[in-house]
Structure formats: structure tokens, C-alpha cells
Description:
The chain has 491 residues and is of the alpha/beta class. It has helices at residues 32-43, 59-63, 75-79, 86-96, 103-111, 113-124, 184-196, 249-255, 273-279, 299-302, 322-332, 343-351, 370-377, 383-395, 472-488, and strands spanning 11-12, 21-28, 48-51, 68-69, 146-147, 167-168, 200-202, 206-212, 218-225, 228-240, 285-286, 291-295, 306-308, 338-342, 365-367, 417-421, 426-430, 433-434, 441-443, 449-455. Strands 1, 2, 3, 7, 8, 9, 10, 19 and 20 form a nine-stranded mixed beta sheet that branches. A four-stranded antiparallel beta sheet has the order 13-14-16-15. Strands 4-6-5 form a three-stranded antiparallel beta sheet. It binds flavin-adenine dinucleotide (FAD). Flavin-adenine dinucleotide (FAD) binds at residues 28-34, 51-54, 59-61, 63-67, 177-178, 181, 183, 206-207, 241-243, 265-267, 269, 273, 457-459, 470-475, 477.
Amino acid sequence: MADNSDDVRPRTATGIEHWDHEADxxxxxxxxxxxxxxxxxxxxxxxxxxxxxxxxxxxAAAMSGGFIYMGGGTPLQKACGFDDTVDAMxxxxxxxxxxxVDEDKIDAYCEGSVDHYHWLADEIGVPFKESFxxxxxxxxxxxxxxxxxxxxxxxxxNATIPPAPRGHVPQMSDKRTGEQGGGYMLMKPLTxxxxxxxxxxxxxxxxxxxxxxxxxRVVGIAAKRFGKDVTIRARRGVVLATGSFAYNDTxxxxxxxxxxxxxxxSIEEHDGRxxxxxxxxxADLAHMxxxxxxxxxxxxxxxxxxxxxxxxxxxINEDTYPGRVGQATLIENxxxxxxxxxxxxxxxxxxxxxxxxxxxxxxxxVAETVPELEAExxxxxxxxxxxxxxxxxxxxxxxxxLFGKKPEWVRPIGSPVAAVDLRGMxxxxxxxxxxxxxxxxxxxxxxxxxxxxxxxxxCTAGVCAGGYASGASLGDGSFFGRRAGRAAAGx
Length: 491
Ligand SMILES: Cc1cc2nc3c(=O)[nH]c(=O)nc-3n(C[C@H](O)[C@H](O)[C@H](O)COP(=O)(O)OP(=O)(O)OC[C@H]3O[C@@H](n4cnc5c(N)ncnc54)[C@H](O)[C@@H]3O)c2cc1C
């Protein structure tokens, strides 16, 4: 094969004289979706080989915070005193993760969520501590096991859908966010289980293209190892699980341009290759414009003030899931945000525990009055004054009729007053990808499954079509990864 690493066109098996490796199920990528697929395929009796581009297992998942979105009445939810139902979980996910969610996927995900919890906790050995973290924040600073991670208990959802926390975090001490977070304690037991089941792994193996037989069935993978071509035969099926396209600038520019130059919560290996390899076989795509968006400010601070856009106007209830704040800022408000907060509220926020002390930014402007602050910020005269006047008028009665922030967080803004400059403080990863069935078959543009080809994780469009909840990626990656492994094994 010519040394053209950008050539994603499929190869035909007829031209291949020698297979370097062979297995029933071949999995590309040893992150969360790949590990779940490998374990499930091996549990179904298949001989499994995982091909991983880096020198070890883990992917973004091992660096991640570890939230796994599960609910419908898991043992951890019950132990922490929360009632949840499959119906409430479905209603929330359909309302918050759209528009345009795959309803069948969400139904399957919610109906299977308690079983998935048992699989992770009892069969794989992922530890969950029976304690709830209820403070505003991106993650629990300690090893608590459960947190609200989607805005379930905030407007607009809490008015109509019974809220329950669904962010389940594996227990781990000495977390180092971005290096070895709670996600490590998901990946370690998953990969240990894979090894115990006889799953083989080949590292430093960069998957390049798919290999098909004369009928168009996927029967293998072509890869590169230290520049050398390697061929791998899959007797039953191939599972693609190589992550998002957040680090492929061309794809980001084409599909999700607001994210250009700001990839976050992903790794450089997320270059969209699996998506393009499958596209070259006619695979369909979904929700390529959808993005997770992190907002780089400590929620303990911004929940106690008001967030305004470049025109000095509020645009969201500040007590919601910070990822919703990120999306609203980047997508709807031109990536411009300021936190307007009085000194007492700022000091109170600083005194509270957090997992993100690095996101406790100093105010850029400080003034005795809002008109002075507004002038210093360079906002049109009267714009911020009108915003604060309306907010304070209702806050005096503990209400926020504009956005529905809960009374416990609504307090009139006093003096001295400051503004924190949060323009450009967002980053994220892509949520769109290959269109797959509820059994993780990769679908052709005709709607038919591509024989022999399965996929899961962030190279697919999962349960999120637009909105996001923390835990949805490790959640749908592990859930639909399992289904991919089972289906590829022919179980
Ligand atoms: C700091 C941080 C915090 C996060 N917090 C959370 C959280 O709390 N909850 C949550 O749900 N999500 C979280 N995420 C996101 C989540 O980790 C990812 O979205 C998720 O791991 C995606 O799963 P995946 O299996 O698709 O990809 P990964 O877990 O990244 O696995 C993909 C694997 O494929 C490999 N690969 C890539 N290309 C090739 C190739 N050509 N050939 C062979 N192998 C290849 C990669 O090296 C990688 O090992 C976080 C991410 C980060 C970085």
C-alpha cells in the first residue's frame, strides 16, 4: 500500500496475501467504548483483539472526570436517597440533549441503565461511594459518588420533570483532573476485566482503513505501526471506537466551526479518522454540529452573581449545569460573557469547596456603583444598569422570573460590585459522528447496516444531539460499546 496516511478509502481483501493478526472481533481504540466492546464481545465468547494507536489503554476516558450518566433508580441513587424513574430519565434526556435526539437510543439507554450500573459495579468492579455532592461545581472535589450533572434540578427542566442526580463517579483518591481523574477508575477495572477474559491488545497500532470482501462486508482493518503496514483480519466484526473529531481542524471547520481553535476535554488522537474511514464505505452521519462546551469559570462564583453577554444582558439561569452555560455562551452569545458579582458574594464563593480552583478568576473591573462599572467595561450606557435593576427588583423577593434561578441563589447585587472578564473562556469536543442503530451497527446512507461494521463512543452520534450532560460520553460510550461488542460477536 502506498504510504498515504490520509487515504481512507477501503481496501479489498482479495489483494491481501498475508494477515499479520486475526481475531473474531477487532476493536479500534482502547478507550471507554473500545474497552466496553472488547469485554462484551469476550463475554459473548469471541476471541478479541484491540488495536490502540498510543502506547497504552485509556484514551480520553482515563483522563476524564469519570462521570457516567445513569439513572432510573440505580442502587447508588437509592443509597443517596433519590427516587428516579426510567420515565423521568427519558423525559429529561429528550428535553435537554436535543434538539433532534435519537429517541430509540435514549429509550434503550434509559431502560437499560440500572442493568448497566450492575454490569459496571458488580461484573466489572467499578467502585462507587455512596455519597452525594450537592454544591455547585464541575466535579466533586473529593471522592463522592453522585452529583447533578445536567441541570435536572434547575430551570427550565425542574418545573415539569422530577429531578434526580445521574452523574455517577467511580471512587478514586488523589484525582488529578486531566491526567488521571475518576475516569481512570472506570478504565482500570474495564481493561483488567478485558485482560482476564483473554482480550489481546496491540499498541502503537494506528488504524488507517477498513478492509472489505467482494460482497462489501467489513472483514478487517489496515493499520500502521511505526510506519509499517499491518493487516488485521476480523472473522466476525470490526468495532470502531477511536473518539471524536475535536482535533481534526478541517472537520471542525466544516461541521462545528464555533469550536475551531478550542478543543477541550479530548485528546489529540481524536482526529475523526474512524468517521472518515466509514464514510468512505458509505456510512451516514448525524449531528455533526453538536458540541459539548465547557465554561472556564468556577460555578461556586458564577452561581452567586449574574452572567451577562457582550450587550450587558443576562442570558441564562446561573444555577444550571455549567455545560449549558458554556453552550449558551459560545453558541448563542458569540463567546462573550462577564460575571457581575458583588464583593460579599465573590468572597462567599471563594470560601466554598471546589474541584476547579484554577477557574477562580480575579475581577477585571471593580466599582462602587453599576453605572461606574458599566462605563469601565465599555458597555453602552444604561445596558448593564437596566439588567441589574430588573434582576435586583425581583431578587428582593427571592425571585428570578426571567430565567427561573432557584430562590436559594437569588440575592440582590450590592456594592462594591465587580465584573470578571469571561470572554473566550470556553472549549469543548464534538458530539456528532457515525449514525448507528441501537445495536451499534454502522448505518449506510441508505439506512441499512454496513455488514460487519459496528461503532460506539464519540466517533458516533450517541444520546446527545445538541445539548449535553456530564457523563453522557462515558455513559453512551460504555453502554453502546457493550452493545457493539455483543453484536460484533454475533451474540
Ligand atoms: C479532562 C476530561 C474530563 C472529562 N470528563 C468527562 C466526564 O466526567 N464524563 C464523560 O462522560 N466524559 C468526560 N470526558 C469526555 C470523555 O472522556 C470522552 O468523550 C470519552 O472518553 C470518549 O470515549 P471514546 O471511547 O469514544 O474515546 P476515548 O476514550 O478517547 O478512546 C479512544 C481511543 O482510540 C484511540 N485511537 C484514536 N485514533 C486511533 C487510531 N487511528 N487507531 C487506533 N486507536 C486510535 C485513542 O488513542 C484512544 O485511546 C472528559 C474528557 C477529558 C479529557
